[in-house]
Design a protein that fits this description.
Layout: H1 2-51, H2 58-80, H3 83-92, H4 96-128, H5 133-143, H6 148-160, H7 165-176, H8 179-194, H9 198-247, H10 253-257, H11 259-283
Helix pairs in contact: 1-2, 1-4, 2-3, 4-5, 4-9, 5-6, 6-7, 7-8, 8-9, 9-11
Amino acid sequence: MVLLKMIPMFLFTFGLWLILTFIYQTVTLFYFRYKGYYERMVTKTTSELGGMFIKVKEKQMGLFLILGMLMIGVFVYFMTKNIVLAVFAVAGSVVLPRLFVKFAKAKHSKKFDEQLVEALILLSNSLKAGLDLTQGMQLIVRDMPAPISDEFKLVLQETNIGSPLEASLENLANRINSELVRFIVTAIVIQRESGGDITKILDQVVRSIRDNHSLMRKVQVLTAQGILESGVSFVLPWGLAVALSIMKPGFLNPLFHHPIGVIILLAATGWQIIGVFIVFKMSKIKV
């Protein structure tokens, strides 16, 4: 009789042990996998920012990432009072560092391209005055602001430690990731290998860049309306939701607390993101 009474307790204990073991193994597996992804992302993000002369330590980047994820989760939970949406927001915020790096790269390349015409004019004038290519780059480093001065300074540092100038310029083109810069680097490398008047090549490149910038400004004017409309269409529903929440508290609670409301909210947000992405792709014209 005693053994029969102990069987339910034994089964309960064994089942509880299985459940706890499964939870422990699942959490451990998730922790180590996420830890590896987190470390790789922090290292890669820090390295790419360093390539743009934005000095951030890995510990600082990791701290910023964790604090940012927690703040996003707390903000979403405070606004919606829904723990599920807060968890999704925290999980989705993992991609924010990659988006920030992509935005920083685009801004870095754009600013470099804007300074390129003046730098090429300075380089061409220095060559006409009898200086060589390295001395002309030294003038760019001395007289021009960042980021173009930082990039050419790195080119000169690589050549000073023994790297060929052609290889250093190729590294410059890889860092900037601009078709225009790659074209200029290719022209300089070909000229150094086959000979020719480099000043004429630079003058022609300057004229081509100016014509290209003029055409790009016209394209930006023509596509600005579509981009503005997509931005307004994305922000307007959320602005109305905030206004309704202020004027009539609790009116949108079913949208955040009912399962069907959460599904509708996620679906609407997804379609908004898809729509904005399509408009941006249609408005982005390569010249």
